[in-house]
Each structure stands twice: as C-alpha cells, then as structure tokens.
C-alpha cells in the first residue's frame, strides 16, 4: 500500500488533487445533511441571516474558492501550503456547486425539481476529478505513446480528433457524454456516431427532411428516458433530498 501511495499519488504530485476532491465531497455531503436537518426542523442549525438578508452558503463558498485558488497558485504544489490551499479550494467548490441551480436560475430553487441540477453537477464533477486522479488526461493525451508524444503532428491530430468527437456529441444533445468524452475518447466516439436527441442542433440541422430519422431518434430518446429517468431522479433525491412538490395551478376561469 505504501509503495502504491508513493508511486501513484506522491510522485506524480496528485496529493493536492486528492485532498481537494476529498474536501469537495465531504463538504457537499455535510452541507446536504445540515440543510436537510434545517428543512426538517431538527438539530441546532438554522439559516444564516444578516440584517434580514438570507446568506446562502454559496457566498462563503465563493470566498473559500478564491482564497484556495490563489493560495494554490502562490504555493508549492508539494509543500504543506499547497495541501492546505487544495483543501480550502475543495471546500469552497463543494459549497458553490451545492447551490449551482441557484446560480443557474438566479432564484432559490434549492428544494425544487430544478435544484436536482446541483446534485447532478456535483456527481459529474466528482467523477471527472476521479478520472483525472486515475491518470486520464483530456482528449486522450494519456493514450499517446512516447513516439507519438515526440511527434507534435500526431499529438495535435489526436487531440483535435477527440475534440471533434466530443463536439459532435455535444451538438447531438448529449452533454454528459461530451463532457466524459473529453476525458475518455471512446465515450465521445460512441456519442458522436449514435443518433442525436430530438431538438438538438444536430437533429434540427440534419433530420429536418428525414422523417424516418426523426422518428427513430424520438423513439430511442423516449426509451432511454423511460428507462433511466426514474432511477436517476431516485439517486439524486437520495443524495440531495427529495424536492418539494410543485403547487397545483388552478385554471383561470375569467
């Protein structure tokens, strides 16, 4: 275990990344536990207010992110200062992304269905950092041999090709696949060759005069969403808490 730790974490200088990821995940989980206790009216915690203003935890999160980011830039990556800065940065990112939906909508949607976006972004971020920690590099740079790395043309061609695949997957409305495909090229290739989701820029551009392709894409999207939407919502609710039910809107009879 000691040899693995030395070879895979310390020597490549990945300790700050590991500390930042750990602080990020722990901060997010602790924050969700506290907010769920506040929501249920349990425990000694409560909303932070100053002069009648509700201070969301994204505010200290931004401050911690700024301090940790500048501290990491100014400190030695292998020293204690770099480790402390990484922990501070991870804590800040955990607080900020926990309220990602609030930033996106510019509204307090923490316990609404839109608030699930925060949990989704946190899970996606943690997964991507884990891939980086495991040695994956963006656009498949880690897959290049030493000879290819020395050949600048081959390296640039590989990076450009993987970038195009990820961009095509994004144009087909497959955001998650495009993001993961930037780290794992095979994922981007799969997303690029499969049918686009209805309403995506690719579908509007290339399926406009192909009714069979539109119907096939719509059927595939329906089957995919029917299979995975409910388990995904259940996982998000288990991690972040179940959102409040939407209020019923009575029809206007004027």
From TrEMBL:
Kindly state which keywords UniProt assigns to this record, in alphabetical order: Membrane, Transmembrane, Transmembrane helix
Respond yes or no to whether keyword Transmembrane is given for this record: yes
Is Iron-sulfur there in the keyword field? no
Q: What domain of life does the native source organism fall in?
A: Bacteria
Q: What are the transmembrane regions?
A: 15-34, 55-74, 80-106, 118-141, 153-170, 177-196
**Under what name is this protein listed?**
Integral membrane protein
Question: Organism source for this protein?
Answer: Streptomyces sp. 900105245
